[in-house]
Design brief:
Elements lengths: L1 E15 L7 E13 L8 E5 L9 E13 L2 E13 L2 H15 L7 E5 L5 E5 L8 E13 L1
């Protein structure tokens, strides 16, 4: 089944030196706004193919990573990415724990593997993998599914 997750990433602050190779900084706030069965008209959404059925009115558990990124001259904090959608809260918590454990274990973690509700292994690339990237948090947002 296909499910769509709409999100907002709002820039809260931004600075940039007005010179070549100048320092810079930006800070964002990321939020999950809506889970729906129909494709949104906006560009700020993710599409997921799930192995379980969700109906309008059902709770959905949206797994999201908040992370920082940057380069030698500056940093961007509060970036977000929707990782997966779950029907079952316990499975969502187990996936969150797996992401937290692997991303905080130290070293370079290119991808994380977790299970969906029916036991399938899902492997996703880690948005916080990179020299300047760093995971801030992995959160679960509970939303009711819209038609």
């Amino acid at each position: 089944m296909t499910i769509y997750v709409e999100y907002t990433q709002t820039c809260l602050a931004s600075e940039r030196e007005d010179c070549d190779y100048g320092s810079w900084y930006s800070e964002y706030q990321f939020s999950v706004d809506r889970v729906s069965l129909t494709k949104p008209l906006t560009y700020n959404h993710e599409k997921f193919g799930l192995n379980v059925d969700l109906k309008a009115g059902d709770p959905a558990f949206v797994l999201t990573m908040i992370y920082s990124s940057g380069d030698s001259f500056g940093t961007s904090r509060g970036n977000g990415e929707v990782l997966w959608v779950f029907k079952d809260a316990a499975t969502a918590l187990a996936a969150r724990d797996k992401w937290m454990q692997q991303c905080r274990s130290g070293g370079y973690v290119e991808s994380v593997e977790f299970n969906d509700e029916i036991g399938n292994k899902i492997r996703l690339s880690n948005p916080a993998a990179g020299y300047f990237e760093n995971m801030s948090d992995v959160i679960i947002t509970t939303m009711l599914v819209n038609p």
